[in-house]
Amino acid sequence: QVQLVESGGGLVQAGGSLRLSCAASGLTGSTNALGWSRQPPGKEREAVAAIWLNIGNTYYADSVKGRFTISRDIAKNTVYLQMNSLRPEDTAVYYCAAGSRTTMLAGGLGYHWGQGTQVTVSW
Fold first, then answer.
1. What angle do CA 99, 12, 33 make, to 5 degrees?
2. pLDDT at residue 112 above 90?
3. What is the residue-wise DSSP string for 13-48?
4. How far apart are CA 42 and CA 34, in angstroms?
5. Residues 3-16, mean pLDDT to the nearest whole number
6. Is the pLDDT of residue 14 over 90?
7. Which residues contact 95 (CB under 8 A, 6 or more apart)?
8. Count of alpha carbons within 13 Å of 2, Cβ hemisphere only?
9. Burial status of residue 5 (CB atoms within 10 A of its CB: 0-12, 13-18, 19 or more)
10. Average pLDDT over residues 7-28
């Protein structure tokens, strides 16, 4: 059973930074990518970033390119999302996701999700 546990959300001022972490367990051959999606208030969930665990290829949504960086620690089965230059429009619940690299590197939401962590960016 895939389990994803997020940490690192919080409140930050515009222009600030946060780092999210996600510890994964129970991954199988079909869940070879980890990533992050987010759901802003009143909007649909959207993919933010993803990384192929074996090779390190990445996907980023256009809205976060140049500001967010996804990385992984294979030994710890952990993925990180470093978020810089945060904007109020980045406010959302951020979910760690696991899935196939085919779908996640194409911007898909994945097959499994964590409980989510709130990120709030204020002016």
1. 10
2. yes
3. ETT--EEEEEEEES--TT--EEEEEEE-TTS--EEE
4. 25
5. 97
6. yes
7. 6, 36, 37, 38, 39, 45, 113, 114, 115, 116
8. 23
9. middle
10. 96
